[in-house]
Every structure is written in C-alpha cells, then in structure tokens.
Amino acid sequence: xxxxxxxxxxxxxxxxxxxxxxxxxxxxxxxxxxxxxxxxxxxxxxxxxxxxxxxxxxxxxxxxxxxxxxxxxxxxxxxxxxxxxxxxxxxxxxxxxxxxxxxxxxxxxxxxxxxxxxxxxxxxxxxxxxxxxxxxxxxxxxxxxxxxxxxxxxxxxxxxxxxxxxxxxxxxxxxxxxxxxxxxxxxxxxxxxxxxxxxxxxxxxxxxxxxxxxxxxxxxxxxxxxxxxxxxxxxxx
Length: 237
Known about the structure:
Layout: H1 2-23, E1 46-47, E2 64-66, E3 69-72, H2 108-116, E4 137-138, E5 170-171, H3 174-179, E6 200-201, H4 203-206, H5 229-232
Antiparallel strand pairs: 1-4, 2-3, 5-6
C-alpha cells in the first residue's frame, strides 16, 4: 500500500512538471519582451528612465479614440501611402492603410505601423506619463535613439512598403471564401486563434502585441508557426 502511495505521489509530481513545461511553450505577457519599452524591456530599444510599460501605447485619459483604437496613446504615423499587395491569386479587396495620421479613420494596422514604419519615435506619446513628462530611449536609431532601425521589424514608410507583405485591411467573409473557389480559405465563422477586426484582416489578426504562441516570443504570433499552423488557421492549402 505504501509503495502504491509513493508511486501515485511521483506520478502526480511528474504530471505537474509536464503541465509546467507545456505552459512554458507560450511566451505569456508583455513584461520583458521587445514590446516592453520600459527600463525592464527585453529588446534592444528600451527606456533609460521610464518604468511604466503600458504608457508607450495606451493611456486611460486623453486617448486617441475610434472604434478600432483601444485607448491609444502613441503618435500615429502621417504616412499617406504604403501600397497594397496585389496578386492574381488574391481575390480580396484590400484598402490602403496609410491615412496621414487621421485619428478618426485609423485602422488597427495603423497602430502597429505607428512604430513599425520607422517614421515615428517609439517614445512619441499623445499623453505622456504624469510621473515622468519625458522619456529617454537607448538602442534605437535616429534622433534620441528612439526610432526602429532598418531591419525586419521596420516595414518602412515608402509608397510600396506593404506591397510585398501579406495583405491587410480587407474583408474576410463568406463572399471572399466563395470567390476564392470555396476550397482554399476556411469559413470565417470557424476560425480559431487568429482574429478579425470588424470582419477585416489586419496586422493584429496574426500578431498579438502582448503575448506570443511561439515559445521564443519573438514574432508575437497568435498561433504557433510550427508546421505552418499560423498559415493553416485561415488557409486550407
């Protein structure tokens, strides 16, 4: 009986360990990631004096606001044209994302591009922290070392910046599935993991700025990229 209890206890401990290992496969939370731009940030670009994490993107007061913007605090890019992805196999109708920084018409993708087109300093805020009116940065490029440097995360602000990237700002609905042949795209009502915004595909459809299903946390993806699972979240082939 004693041996049975010991075996059961060991089995329970092994199960708990396996649960812990499984949970570590997802990089949860923004703290310490590249999107944490505070002094505790885990990326190259971070503040030398700002300890608040959320302030770089969000503010509870005096926020930029429309139905697409969640209490937004970061200065919007004034880029008017990024270009639109085109292909004979793309049956969607993508709209230009660039809108010259107009708050009322900004799409979700504009929020991402307000840093990732490289034209706006990452510490440029609509409503600075009450505790610290200025925020200094290190590790970036340009004035104040506060711009995303040229590289994979800097999509650019040229008129053709998004022409070679997955299309965004287009409606994904049953009509699109039908026009695409009915066999290449999944029914939008059945999608899991990825997210549509007012039935539109945006940058944040695949990317979650706060967490990542990838164990490294590098890509901030909503679905793991292992075995192309992120692609298969929408596509059937």
